[in-house]
Amino acid sequence: MGKVTRDLTLILLYLTSWEEEVGLGTFRRSWKGYPSETLNNLAEDGLISDSRRAKSVWLTEKGETSPKAPRGIRACASLPGNRRTGGSFAKAQE
User: Fold this and answer.
1) 85 or 7: whose pLDDT is higher?
2) 64: exposed, middle or buried (C-beta count within 10 Å: 0-12, 13-18, 19+)?
3) pLDDT attached to residue 73
4) What kind and span of H or E run contains 3?
C-alpha cells in the first residue's frame, strides 16, 4: 500500500466520520467503504480500530492527532467548529 493511498484513505475516513457518545467519552466512527487491505494496514499502524464483523471503524486518538497522520486531518481537527476544540459550532450544538 502506498503512502498516498494510506493518507487519502485516513483523510476520507475522518471527513466522513461522525461522533458517538460511548461510556468513556466521545469517539469518531466511519463506514468501511474502502479496500480491506488499506483498512488492515491502518489498523496495524494503530490509526483506526477495526472489527472484522462491524461495518464501521473507530478512528483512534493517534489516527486523529498523531504527527504521522496527514496534515489534512490535523488541520480539520483544529477547525473552530470541531467539538474537541470547543469552537462556536460545537457550542451551538449543545
Assistant:
1) 7
2) buried
3) 62
4) helix 3-15
pLDDT digits (tens, 9 = 90+) for 10-56: 888 888 888 888 888 888 899 998 998 999 999 999 999 987 788 99
- Residues 39, 31: Cα–Cα separation, whole Å: 11
DSSP 4-59: HHHHHHHHHHHHT-EEEEETTEEEEEEE--S-HHHHHHHHHTTSEEE-SS-SEEEE
CA gap 51, 36 in Å, rounded: 11
